[in-house]
Amino acid sequence: MERFIDLIKVSKVFSENTVVLDKVDLYINKNEFLTLLGPSGCGKTTTLRIIAGFERPTSGDLQFEGRSILNLPPYKRPVNTIFQKYALFPHLNVRDNVAFGLRIQKMDEKLIKTKVEYMLSLVNLAGYGRRRITALSGGQQQRVAIARALVNEPEVLLLDEPLGALDLKLRKEMQLELKHMQQELGITFVYVTHDQEEALTMSDTIAVMNDGRIQQIGRPEDIYNEPKNAFVADFIGESNIISGFMPRAFVVEFSGASFDCVDKGFGENSPVDVVIRPEDIKLRPAEDCRLKGIVDSVTFKGVHYEMIVSAPDGAKWKVHSTKQAPAGSAVGLRVGPDDIHIMKSGKLGFGETTGGG
């Protein structure tokens, strides 16, 4: 992919004691759907605002195609931004809201009509041009905001939690629609969210942020299956994270037992952290497994049961399974080498992985 946007050692300090971004390095490829994912206050929206030109970094550089644009005002940057609050004009109808930016550019009215009709069709609002904004649902207003931004043909669309105000069903529908629009138009999307499922569903690349730093960047599959540290493992999906010990490569000990794994590169006799996803744990008869415990609780989650299992060493294991074991029963917990992910003790990162887990 073609490298497009570069943030180089970007820092943002709002006061002496408030470092919002701490020497962030990030590149975004052309025609990529990149998501900045993290909890509130992690710096993701500030990063977006720096790209848009609404904030200036305290230090560092921002480049488009190798050229610094720090001194370009927002209106001269090849970007458009959609916020959670859509900022539509209530006194204008749908068509005039979408056409607003084109009329500012003094574009020919015939061309404006053609572009607006195409864009309304793209966001599934064909025939809504004469509707008043106040007569639309929240989801329809969100589509108008997207159409208004896209009709100006920006090279980059910046989206700051645009689905946050929608109900769950509509939010899931719009996730797929946004991805479809991005693919059809072939422009770069930079998307901000704290919703892990949203990021995994839509993104080509996810940058997980915390405390003003990028914790990990990669494809959704890699972020989920190979988290670089405990924060990423815990924030992306759910994880069991416990202390362990690696006597040698491909072997790890935890909960009083030894297990084969697919990791190496930690050195001999090294303390490590072990990450196991709840859905990777298989329930078996207690006598068949080295890892076992008593079921504390069972919760039905719709597509699976969530069980909390107490092990003899005091560990609490979260297990997701389509089959339930009743509370109070003894169960075995089976994990394969590919299900065990190893991190350096202290949650600093991974060693080498030969595959699978």
Which short descriptors sum up this protein?
alpha+beta; Rossmann fold; six-stranded mixed beta sheet
Protein described:
- This protein has 357 residues and is an alpha+beta fold.
- It has 2 domains: 3-230, Rossmann fold, CATH 3.40.50; 238-353, OB fold (Dihydrolipoamide Acetyltransferase, E2P), CATH 2.40.50.140.
- It is 24% helix and 36% strand.
- It contains 8 helices and 22 strands.
- The strands form 5 sheets. The chain has a 6-stranded mixed β-sheet with strand order 6-7-8-3-9-10, with helices on both faces. A 5-stranded antiparallel β-sheet has the order 13-12-11-15-21.
- Helix 2 crosses helix 3, helix 2 (94-104) runs parallel beside helix 4 (138-150) and helix 3 (109-122) packs across helix 4.
- The longest helix is centred in the middle third of the chain and has 18 residues, at 168-185.
- The radius of gyration is 24 Å and the shape is elongated.
- The protein starts with a strand and ends with a strand.
Topology readout:
Blueprint: E1 3-15, E2 18-29, E3 33-37, H1 44-52, E4 59-64, E5 67-68, E6 79-82, H2 94-104, H3 109-122, H4 138-150, E7 156-160, H5 168-185, E8 188-193, H6 196-202, E9 205-210, E10 213-218, H7 220-225, H8 230-235, E11 240-248, E12 251-254, E13 257-260, E14 263-264, E15 270-276, E16 282-284, E17 291-300, E18 305-310, E19 316-321, E20 330-334, E21 341-344, E22 352-353
Parallel strand pairs: 3-8, 3-9, 6-7, 7-8
Antiparallel strand pairs: 1-2, 1-4, 4-5, 9-10, 11-12, 11-15, 12-13, 14-22, 15-21, 16-20, 17-18, 17-20, 18-19
Helix pairs in contact: 2-3, 2-4, 3-4
